[in-house]
């Protein structure tokens, strides 16, 4: 049995949970080592006090589960079975408090679960799992570094396709081809390539706009590798850009550096956001920094913590999160520079290494 399951069972005792049901496929993988995408089919890890852990998987995943899972008691269900009846059979009568992942369960699945299992009450185990996941292990950091090395190599090779007349979506296609070619599982989110005035859209959609001389060109992308995500943003100049665009770039770069410098265990997440935001405000672009400084990163590309100016949670060793200040001026363009950082016992390690100084591509 994995040490993570043992930790979770101890927390069950501490919090008065009689049983808990983990249904998020990422959490099943985190706890058992078995990775799958069950689609609409039921997947669940059941832990009950005094009982052996049980993994319930679709029948078509039985072989993979037996090969990968640290949980050895595995039951399967076919497409014609009712998995909730199967789950019901695992309980000896009623259960006092059943832990579930409220954010993961749909209303329909919750109704099926509550109709099948007699529970005195349901408790949300989302915060418990979040608190486990926030402290990344050396093995997790190793996997994340690999994901970051892959996306940076994708960027290096992908920049060769940039030239005037090429469309944003053509560059996206090349980048996502390179992701798979270089060994990634796939993109960790929709790859974003924006050019010219569209760079002023923090979450713009790549399209058929052609790259032009004088454009700002923004890449925001990441990959999954070994179950863990990377996320990087870099902004380039295509040929000569305007003095104000250069000023914006320098302001965002300074904010990125100040944000990273502010990170150490024990400070608030709010103070990290504020340090970066102060640099942009000093340069006169405060109203154009439209979003939080960053977000947690790991098995999900967006997870705890949220790095914003009102979050008084403390920075902890083991956290991984992004630092991604940006300035977005309609009609002129935008700049975002994003790094992934790991909080150490004494400070911070920047996991991304792609150069951040302004790079001019041939227009």
Describe the structure.
The chain contains 10 helices and 20 strands. By secondary structure, it is α+β, with helices and mostly antiparallel strands. It has a 6-stranded mixed β-sheet. The protein has a 4-stranded mixed β-sheet with strand order 8-9-12-20. A 3-stranded antiparallel β-sheet has the order 7-10-11. Strand 10 and strand 11 (228-229) form a beta hairpin. The model has no long low-confidence stretch (mean pLDDT 95).
Number of strands: 20
Mean pLDDT: 95
Q: Which structural class should the secondary elements be placed in?
A: alpha+beta
Distance between the termini: 57 Å
SSE topology string:
HEHEEHEHEHEHHHEEEEEEHHEEEEEEEE
Seen as an oligomer or otherwise, the chain set is single chain
Largest sheet: 6 strands, mixed
Uncertain residue ranges = none
Beta-strand portion reads: 15-25%
User: What does the radius of gyration come to?
Assistant: 23 Å
Q: What brief labels describe this structure?
A:
10 helices, single chain, 6-stranded mixed β-sheet, alpha+beta, 363 residues
Write the SSE topology:
Blueprint: H1 3-15, E1 19-22, H2 25-32, E2 44-48, E3 54-58, H3 62-68, E4 74-77, H4 83-88, E5 95-100, H5 107-116, E6 119-124, H6 126-133, H7 138-158, H8 168-181, E7 186-187, E8 192-195, E9 216-221, E10 223-225, E11 228-229, E12 232-238, H9 243-261, H10 269-282, E13 294-296, E14 303-307, E15 320-323, E16 326-329, E17 333-336, E18 339-343, E19 348-350, E20 360-361
């Amino acid at each position: 049995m994995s040490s993570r399951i043992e930790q979770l069972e101890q927390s069950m005792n501490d919090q008065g949970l009689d049983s808990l049901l983990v249904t998020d496929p990422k959490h099943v993988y985190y706890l058992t080592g078995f990775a799958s995408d069950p689609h609409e089919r039921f997947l669940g890890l059941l832990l009950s006090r005094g009982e052996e852990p049980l993994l319930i998987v679709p029948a078509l995943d039985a072989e993979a589960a037996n090969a990968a899972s640290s949980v050895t008691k595995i039951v399967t269900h076919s497409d014609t079975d009712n998995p909730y009846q199967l789950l019901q059979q695992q309980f000896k009568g009623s259960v006092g408090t059943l832990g579930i992942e409220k954010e993961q369960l749909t209303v329909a699945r919750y109704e099926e679960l509550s109709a099948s299992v007699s529970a005195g009450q349901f408790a949300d185990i989302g915060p418990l799992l979040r608190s486990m996941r926030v402290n990344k292990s050396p093995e997790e950091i190793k996997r994340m570094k690999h994901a970051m090395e892959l996306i940076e190599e994708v960027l290096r090779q992908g920049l060769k396709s940039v030239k005037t007349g090429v469309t944003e979506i053509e560059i996206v296609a090349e980048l996502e081809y390179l992701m798979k070619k270089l060994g990634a599982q796939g993109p960790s989110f929709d790859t974003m390539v924006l050019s010219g005035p569209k760079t002023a859209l923090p979450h713009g959609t790549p399209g058929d706009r052609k790259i032009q001389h004088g454009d700002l060109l923004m890449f925001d992308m990441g990959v999954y590798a070994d179950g863990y995500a990377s996320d990087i943003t870099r902004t380039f100049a295509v040929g000569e850009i305007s003095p104000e665009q250069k000023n914006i770039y320098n302001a965002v770069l300074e904010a990125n550096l100040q944000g990273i410098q502010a990170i150490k265990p024990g400070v608030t997440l709010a103070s990290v956001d504020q340090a970066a935001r102060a640099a942009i405000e000093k340069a006169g672009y405060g109203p154009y920094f439209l979003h939080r400084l960053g977000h947690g990163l790991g098995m999900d590309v967006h997870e705890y913590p949220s790095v914003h100016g009102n979050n008084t949670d403390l920075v902890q060793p083991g956290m991984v999160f992004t630092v991604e200040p940006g300035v977005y001026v309609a009609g002129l363009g935008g700049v975002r520079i994003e790094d992934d950082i790991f909080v150490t016992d004494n400070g911070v390690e920047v996991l991304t290494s792609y150069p951040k100084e302004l790079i001019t591509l041939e227009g």
